[in-house]
Amino acid sequence: MERRARVVFLIRIAPGGEEDFLAAYERIRHQVAGGVPGHLGDQVCRSTTDPGQWMITSEWRDLRCFEEWEASAAHRELVAPMRACMTDARSLRFAVVAETAAESAA
């Protein structure tokens, strides 16, 4: 059984590169959300204690979808402007094995 996947990128943005990084993310986010098979959503987060530390999390239908996207030339081309702002990046991959969501107000 294939499980949904969560991918976490822990990244460091070069000092002064924050605006360029966010602008690059803004330019590509709708293309990824609407055009990459298996992509369910993502978030960009900034550390509250270390302004140079950022995190991108994304959720995928399954890990295979993410790995196919990450290996593609289209991916490398699309994310190049974001990567240009990074001084360090690390990728972590997880399979979702359990989940709890808030109950919607009725």
Structure description:
The chain has 106 residues and is an alpha+beta fold. The protein has a single domain (5-95), classed as Alpha-Beta Plaits (2-Layer Sandwich). The protein is 35% helix and 33% strand. It is built from three helices and four strands. It has helices spanning 18-35, 63-70, 73-83; strands at residues 5-13, 39-46, 53-60, 86-95. The chain has a four-stranded antiparallel beta sheet with strand order 2-3-1-4. The protein is globular, with a radius of gyration of 15 Å. The mean pLDDT is 93.
Q: Briefly note the structural class of the backbone.
A: alpha+beta
Q: Number of domains in the coordinates? A: 1
How would a textbook summarize the main sheet? 4 strands, antiparallel
What is the C-level CATH assignment? Answer: Alpha Beta
Task: Give the C-alpha Rg.
Answer: 15 Å
CATH architecture label name? 2-Layer Sandwich
Poorly predicted regions: none
SS element count, helices:
3
Identify the overall geometry.
globular
Strand content: 25-35%
> In percent, how helical is the residue content?
25-40%
CATH topology descriptor: Alpha-Beta Plaits
Multimeric state of these chains? single chain
Mean pLDDT: 93
N- and C-termini, Cα separation:
33 Å
Could you give the count of β-strands? 4
Main sheet strand line-up: 2-3-1-4
> What is the ordering of alpha helices and beta strands?
EHEEHHE
InterPro entries: ABM_dom, Dimeric_a/b-barrel
Domain ABM: 5-94
Protein name: Antibiotic biosynthesis monooxygenase
Keywords: Monooxygenase, Oxidoreductase
